[in-house]
Structure formats: C-alpha cells, structure tokens
C-alpha cells in the first residue's frame, strides 16, 4: 500500500502485485501537479497561464475534454477547490487508464515494452530523474 507513482505501479505488477492504494494522485493534484502521457506536468506554473490546451492531449477524461490548462491553473491559483478536483479527477483517470494498458500488455505479452515507454515518458531512465 502507498504505491502510486507510475514506475512503482508497473514494477509492482511485474513482481506479481495486483492491488494498489495510494493518496498520491490526489495529493499531487492539490499541489497543482498532474500525470500525463508526456510525463509530469505542474499546471500551476506560470507557463500555463495562457495555455488553452487540455492537461493531456492524449487523454479523454472529463477534465481534458472540457477544461484548459490555463483555466485549471487559474482555479488553483485562485484557491478554488474545483481546480483541485479537476486535477484529481484527471490523475485518477490517468492511473486507471494506465492500469488498463498494463492489463492489455500482460495479455499481449509486451509488459516490458509498456514499461520502457512509460519510463521514457517520465524520464526515469535519465540520471537525477525527478519523480513526484
């Protein structure tokens, strides 16, 4: 329990773990951080003030379909809890979708390929890689 980082989830599955529980997706959302198919994104940063794209251009969650990075950043910076909820919803959706991909990768016998892809997206293969 307490495992919620993408690399630990995938490595846990490889080692036979099939149940995870963690506050990480909601905790990092409260700090303005979201998980994306391109890696970690800190939406509260100033660079997203005028970014009208979704949190993740490859995500079909409610948040990504209806709200922009700029709007979510505005909500979080303004202290509106709705922004934290949208970021939390996205993070939970991302992880559920990731685990569905893990299930399919097991069936397709290419879990190690998925692991390599996710590790590349999050920069886990680089020295001094930053987790969450």
TrEMBL record:
The keyword tRNA processing applies. GO terms for biological process: tRNA queuosine(34) biosynthetic process. SUPFAM superfamilies: tRNA-guanine transglycosylase (SSF51713). GO terms for cellular component: cytosol. Pfam families: TGT. Residues 1-122 form the tRNA-guanine(15) transglycosylase-like domain. The keyword Thylakoid does not apply. Keywords: Queuosine biosynthesis, tRNA processing. This is tRNA-guanine transglycosylase. It comes from Lentilactobacillus farraginis DSM 18382 = JCM 14108. The lineage of its organism: Bacteria, Bacillati, Bacillota, Bacilli, Lactobacillales.
């Amino acid at each position: 329990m307490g495992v919620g980082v993408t690399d630990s989830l995938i490595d846990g599955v490889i080692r036979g773990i099939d149940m995870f529980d963690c506050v990480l997706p909601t905790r990092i959302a409260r700090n303005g951080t979201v998980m994306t198919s391109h890696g970690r994104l800190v939406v509260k940063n100033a660079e997203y003030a005028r970014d009208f794209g979704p949190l993740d251009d490859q995500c079909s969650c409610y948040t990504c379909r209806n709200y922009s990075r700029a709007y979510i950043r505005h909500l979080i910076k303004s202290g509106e809890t709705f922004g934290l909820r949208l970021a939390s919803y996205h993070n939970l959706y991302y992880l559920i979708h990731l685990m569905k991909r893990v299930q399919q990768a097991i069936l397709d016998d290419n879990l190690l390929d998925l692991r390599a892809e996710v590790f590349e997206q999050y920069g886990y293969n680089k020295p001094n890689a930053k987790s969450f």
